[in-house]
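Narrative progress, year one. The postdoctoral researcher (J.K.) led the effort to move from monomer predictions toward full complexes, under supervision of the PI. The following entry was the first complex the group processed end to end, covering 695 residues in total.
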Amino acid sequence: MTRISLIALGAFAIMASAICLLVILPDAMLSHVEAPSQLSDYTAVQAQGRAIYVREGCVYCHSQQVRDPSFTTDVDRGWGTRATVPADYVYDTPHLLGTMRTGPDLINVGQRLPDIDWHLIHLYDPRSLVEWSTMAAFPYLFERKAPADVRAEDRVVQIPGPRAPQGVVVVARPEAIALAEYLISLNRQYPVNATAGGSHDSP
Amino acid sequence: MSGSALDDRDVKAVALSRGLVPDDLQARLRADASSRTVVLVLFTAGIIWLLIGSVFGEIASLKLHWPDLLVEQGWLTFGRIRTAHLHAVNYGWATAVLIGASVWLMPRLVHAELRGARLALIGGVLFTLGVAVGVVAVLMGYNDGMEWLEAPRFLAGPFFVVGGGLVGLSLFRTVAARKADHLYISVWYILGAFIWFPMLYLTAKWREWSGVEGAAVNWFFAHNVLGFWLTAMSVGLAYYFIPKVLGRPVYSYQLSVLGFWSLAMFYSLNGMHHLVGGPLPTWMITTSIVASVFMFIPVVATGINLHMTVIGRFNALRYSPTLRFVVLGALAYTAVSLQGSFTALREVNRITHFTHWTVAHSHVGGYAFVTFVCFGAMYYIVPRVVGHEWPSARLIRWHFNSVLAGITIYVVGLTAAGVAQGLALLDPAIPFQVSVERSMLGLYARSVGGLLLSAGHLVFAWHFWLMVRMPSSVPRRTRPPFHEAQPVLYSS
């Protein structure tokens, strides 16, 4: 090949067609997907928690998608009652579908583990609740106070077992509470149908 | 250390023995001189990023089996340090070195001095500053939330766009001013990369994407930035260095044309295979699986071409560190691509998706292929830029052996961990806990492999430092260095 224009135009044209096929076309098709009636947008606190989920990179170990039962065992594992569909994600910016399951899937964790106190303890020290866990701990989302300094409005977290810090009281910062609120809000178990963007094949 | 076998020949004899007339050699020396500053600055920046990225990567690796390590500081949490590692090594190290090598190579290939060398320098520095901005932002907790695209669009984005654009401008101007009629294969890949990267980056970043469309855009970009930026430039370099060092033409011109255009056509549609089984329209995922299988065409074409050029001359790998790194890199490219095609198949993917297999796979590509090509290119280019030989064959050997052992342990360990993890996840009778425990051995192996890689990087960085600060009182050769003729497997 001896002409720059051939290489440049050819390279441009091929990438432009790929962008049309896998970015522009799906964007047009998926823009019709509407939110299921049972799915509500995130509250301000949940949205703040979601931003912390993004900030701390939770997505690198936790997916947020249940795949088709005919293909995998996500449903059998108890991560959801049905495969998730495009309509389940209309409020998600940025998406957090994830590509790793170093930890379990979280798209329905709010249904599975609805107790916010469990999440606060787990965020402070995962191994105080789950001995074999390799999850990162997030003690910097909490304060450790002397018992005398604890105020009435503080959200005190009781860490159980031998790993509990001695002589101090663990108090959740607003960030930790927001993140836990977001986690318990994750629940996509309501029924969906094809017209609501439910089917895999007809977005 | 003894000099090369070619030491006792003069410039003219060397030139004639290679079918060059001295005028051509003078033109080449001028071409090399025109890119000197850019190349040195970018290589230095690249090595700094390599060391930083190694530290980040090792910390991230340790945290997966020692989760209570360094948990008190937000910037050291796994999710941030892992992302900083990805940016440091891909956009910092590999990109800086590949840009530097491209800027060095292009004037040689088109027989012209680098046009806009200052633009290229500013562009390269801006790009690497953008990486610094992105890494600091991610560590501080500011990121855009899509894998490979975390560096904030308004903070780091302008650096990438303007920086990459300026380098591209300089390269295109150089090609436009060419004296050679023919455009060698490497030129196609390098020019292609500088067209493709801005298209991909601007598509992914020009607005915020929501929902599953966000996932589609995410993986469209993240897969293609490997294929059309890192891979494109690395393949371009392999196409230069293998025939160059061996003094042998590329096996087949036709295959290289086929390889180039089919790579563009099929690779660009691969991205959705990162979402197999996910909540996207099935046709998108199927398109990517089909395209992934069709990747056999460019991979086999390029593979035959590069490997057949070496065949019968493997002995030369003992003498040239460039050849050794680049040939192994090319083999890794074939391997990682075929592995990728298989991984896209649904039956394989249901085991390997969401596991450490993918991380191992990405390191075969990003390290055993791209980084090896980068090392090989630097071993060839730096002596020609600074005007003297690498001071120590022993350091080259230590570097090579350490990183080869490191990446082997890394990939074997983590791939096995991924399969064990994936099989456990696929059986609902097995508790999730078991998938964690069964991957543990491989995670330890990864940390050991990572330490060896880091050790190799330190040796290489030290050697590079010795090389560039070697006092000018050391008599410089009047002849061009021909490093490829020095034995590196045995001490000399």
